[in-house]
Structures are given as C-alpha cells and as structure tokens.
Amino acid sequence: MPAKKSKLLILGSTGLVGSRFIKIYQQKYSIITLGRNNTDIKVNLLSKKGLMQKIQKLSFDAIINFAAYTNVDGAEKEKGDKNGEVYTLNCLLPLWLANYTKTFGCKLYHISTDYVFSGTQNNRPYTENDTPRPVNSWYAMTKYFGEENILSSDRSKNCTIVRISYPYSGQYIRKLDIARSVIEQVKNKKMYFGAEDQKIKPTSVDDISNALSFLVDNNSTGIYHVAGNFHPKAYITPFNFARKIAKLMNLNLAQVKPISFAALSKKRVARRPQHTWLDTRKIEAFGLRITPINEALKRFLNQMINK
Fold first, then answer.
1. Which of 196, 247, 253, 272 is the S-S candidate for 239 at Cβ 3.0 to 4.6 Å?
2. Residue 89 CA to chain centroid, in angstroms?
3. Torsional sign, CA 88, 92, 96, 101
C-alpha cells in the first residue's frame, strides 16, 4: 500500500519560486493552491476574514507561504502605509497564518529573504543566529516584520522560516530575475552593470524547491538559510555572476560591465543591503545537498533551451 501523501496548502503558487515547487513536486504531495488568480481556490490574500473562512474549510498537513510583495522599488510607493498591499502581504499574512497553525496544529513554512539583514557584514556570511537589521526600504522592513510576527510568543513552535537569496529560474517568464535580466539586457544590445564589490549567493529555484521538500519531509521547525553553492569561495559578486550567465549563453561579454555598489545604488529607488551572502551550513549539516553553481547553471541552460 503506497504511503499517504502529505497535503500541502500553498499560497503564492503562481510566483517565481512557488510555481517551480509545484511543477517539481505535484506528484509527490497532494497540493491545494489558494490565491487570487489561477489557483484551485480563489481568495483575496489581503482579506483576513475571507482567507480564514476559506482555510478553515480545508484539510491539510502544512502551509507553504510563497506569497509576498517582492518588487523592491515598487514597495517604496507604500512606505509607511500599514493598510497597503506590501505591509499586508509581507507582514500581516504571515501573522494570520502563524496564528492559524498555533490554533489548529498544522505546520507553516514561510519564505523570507536575505534582505532582512543590513548587508554591512563582509567578513563572513550571515547565519541563522545573526540578528536581522533591515535597511530602510519598505520591502526589507516588511519582510522582517513578517518574520517577527511568526517568531513572537509561542506562535513559532509549528513554524519554519526559510530565507532565500536572489532566486533565478530558467522557465519562469512573468518576471525577470538576476540571471534572465542579464540575458535580456545583453540580447537587446544594452550594457549590463553588475556590482563588483558585493557578496551575494544567487539561488536556483530548483534548489529552493528541493530544500522545502526536504524540510517538509523532516517535519522541521526553526530558521534555515537556502542559497547558492559557490564553494570554495562561498560567494560571488553580481558582476562575476553576470559574466557566468553571459558565457553560458554565448553572449557578448563586453556588454557586461563592473560598477561599484555605491554607484549602482544611486540609480535605484529603494536601498538594498550590500553583502547578503547566507551561511547554509545548518541545512547542509541536516542532510541537504545544494547543487554546486556550475551544475546549477547547466540545469538553468537546459531549462532555457527546453522551455
């Protein structure tokens, strides 16, 4: 007799990471998607009442919350607005879900971000034990508030926070990411400027999906970092990552130019943290293999070719 499939309720199923998780694991788990568009169950995630009415009628083992407002510059338009979409999705929605798990006993896996950190630490990557201090951008601040809402009091006992970093995909076409933005710029004969003095760890959405499945299967709780495997250096600069992508796609390397983080920041609406490289030794010690970067990029190339 086959083992019973875990039942997962997924919010944010049409986004960059959520859609990939479902593509990979739709046979392994019994999945219910919930959201505004193209989901099994339609609901406005900005409405606590509407959301709770829908959720309470369902049966599931765990919630995975991919839903978030992720346009970093766009979020600045609502800065300080606690009635806005950004604050509701990034801060209040995690609170509502955590309260639900506290009452009904299911698990919550909440996707967060490396942007909860200040980015001032350049001597070592951030661990799960480091204290978040977001820069003064509304996206970063609301994602941090969302984490705090989960971790406060005894709500966290059924919750896992998964911080990810610069997710990229070879198949998602609705939004450009750190990899496909390079391709888009260079193919259109434009210059791509990548910071040469910034430490980051771009992450394949396949690795994020695998990590989530691993944590669900192991019934985990707590905080885990999931980020790209750039061993032995442990990070890459946006400039060097862009060069890797350009080489991979046989694009003109002369169109990929270095720039300082400070100069690039002047071109942006919202502040970004500089060094947000995440330490992934905790989840790797738990048993997860994160794909080495060259292997991950070969997979990315195959997905780009075959999408």
1. 196
2. 14
3. positive
Helix pair angle (205-217, 293-306), 10° resolution = 110
Total structural domains within the chain: 1
A 10 A CB-CB count for 236 gives 22
User: Could you tell me the pTM of the whole model?
Assistant: 0.96
Cα–Cα distance measured from residue 25 to residue 272, given in angstroms and rounded to the nearest whole number:
33
Residue 189 lies in a domain: yes
CATH number of the domain encompassing residue 249: 3.40.50.720
Burial of residue 169 (CB within 10 Å: 0-12, 13-18, 19+) is buried
**CA gyration radius for the chain?**
19
Q: Which amino acid is at 221?
A: T
> At how many degrees (to 10) do helices 238-248 and 293-306 cross?
50
| φ/ψ bin of 166: left (φ > 0), alpha (ψ from -120 to 50), beta (otherwise) | left
Instruction: State which amino acid sits at residue 297.
Output: L
